[in-house]
Design a protein that fits this description.
Elements lengths: L1 H7 L3 E7 L3 H11 L9 H8 L2 E13 L5 E8 L3 H10 L14 H9 L7 H11 L4 H10 L1 H5 L1 E6 L22 H12 L2 E3 L3 H7 L8 H8 L5 E2 L18 E4 L5 H9 L1 H4 E4 L12 E7 L4 E5 L15 H12 L8 H5 L5 E5 L17 H7 L1 H14 L5 H40 L2 H18 L5 H35 L20 H45 L2 H12 L1 H39 L14
Parallel strand pairs: 1-2, 4-5, 5-6
Antiparallel strand pairs: 2-3, 3-4, 7-8, 9-10, 9-11
Helix pairs in contact: 5-6, 7-9, 16-17, 18-23, 19-23, 20-21, 20-22, 22-23
Amino acid sequence: MFQKALEKEIKAIGITDYFDISNFKKVIDFVNNIDSCDAFNNDEKEIIKNIFILPNIELRILPSTNKGSLINIHCIFNPNSNFLEQLENDFFGSLEDSNGNKMNRAGIIALGKSNNNSLDNEAAYKKGIKEFHLETSQLIKLFKNKSSLKENTIITVSNSNQDGASACQKHYKLFENETGSLEAVIRNIYTLADAIFSGNPKDKTFFLGEKSGCNEQSVINDCGSLKPCIHGSDAHCEDQLFNPNKNRFCWIKADLTFEGLKQILCEPKDRVKIQQNKPEEKTGYHVIKSIKIKNNICNQTIPLNNNLNVIIGGRSTGKSTLLQLIAYKINPNISGVGQFIKDISQNSIEIIWQDEEKNKDRDIEFFPQNHMYEFAREKDKKNELIQTIVNEKEQENMIKDYHKFCDSNKSTLRTNIDDLFKLQTIINELNLTLKEKGDKNGLEKEIKSLQNKIKNTHQNQNQNDLNEFEVLKKEILKLQLSLKKLEKDKNEISILKNENLFDSSFTYKFNQLSDLNTEGIQDIFDVIKQRTTKEWQDKLSNKLEKIDQYLEEHNNNIQQKKETEIFKKGMQYLEENKQYKEFNDRLKIENNKLEEIICIQNEINKIKASYIGFWGGLRYPAIELDINKF
């Protein structure tokens, strides 16, 4: 067994037996006397002595499963010898089957002879083991009444479909709204259990509350707690030793102690992994396994965890001294080591790495006392540390990506700031023009006043003709304003048509590429630029053609309206009525001003909206601006 354990690098072994721990005691006796065994060398003997060995008692309880087997419950006991001495009375002698036979050797022999008194004790014992079973209620009562027994026992239930609780009923059925005696028994079994013996991933997700439709609280309500799943080889022959089904090895992150094992009950999600390969395995040359110190000050081996180690102690108890000893032994040229450490004989110290190399000079980071305080206090040192850390991540192109990020944002900032000042200049000019045009409210009042005056000047004229004339004037005015907008847009679009859509500085970024790709990327860019520029110019040319059509249609429409009889009569009336003509001329001017004010205000609002868009594309809030100032 131990030869295979060495081959598989097994750290803990559970010795399973029925109704007693005699085989566990035999294994312990072998380990205690292993120095006299010639089958192992000295290093192997030391490894075997450090393997954690636990007694695991398998019990069979009612009810029977739908496969006809009894349910298996396992009790993993604290291997502490003082506790084990109490088991005979507190555990084995306290449980009985339905016929009153105690769960000890005498009771099991009596059970074996109950139907055949001619059997010798050994044969009767074997027969009794096969027939002995318990009621769940007995175990619940025993562990409830004996707190010391409960504290030193991890109760696990098998969840196989042959001899496990799930063979009675699929565990998801527990969460259906069904009641009955069988459901109550199964709930009691799961509530009694601290853990589940299963390597099935589905069982793991279920008992950790990670199964879809069955959350943590549901499992806690029906099973008493979340349950870690643990798994072993369940070997019944030598070939099965440490060869679990489907290579589902059980990895537990804890100290090799019973208290360490109990941590899986508190942290079932984080402490247990069932998989083929060791989780979070580190390379041996990166991990210090232990430190051996042998001198008149200290004589011991200090094992280290391959993850995090914490040295706890009061002032002047040797915390910093131990760190300095390790650092100086690995690299005598390292800074920050006191003279006291240098005076200690280096022959009395041995550093053992995880790959079994000893006193190997390897790269380490050593932070002496107050080291981080000095870095935090001095800006240059702090920046140097950060730069070093970032440089170590260079394989992920962190620095290069960061510089690209900064350059891109700087370029965007410069462009947007330039655009901002341009927009500010335009807004200032528009506001000045707006001020010169007059007050919008004042213009609206003046227009209303002129309209009333015009109405009063032609009370003796044909009102219908004048009303139609006024309608025509408004329609013509509207068309003329549209003509102005179209002419303005035509000029702007003609300028845009010949603008360069591509920033000339963009191709500079291609210089950062190697010569293997620079030319190819430039070719791609040129093709896209040429195609896009042509498409842009073609579409704007089409747009200009449509604008010319609109201009022609508007001019024709205006001319048609001016040639109507109503319009001609109205114009004749204007010529003959000076007061009416004066009011109309003034009204026309005021209407034009009002329309220009509305257009200018709309333009200002559009500029402000585009201004907001400039800053929306930035990836960090570089500048805070109050848009209402513009």
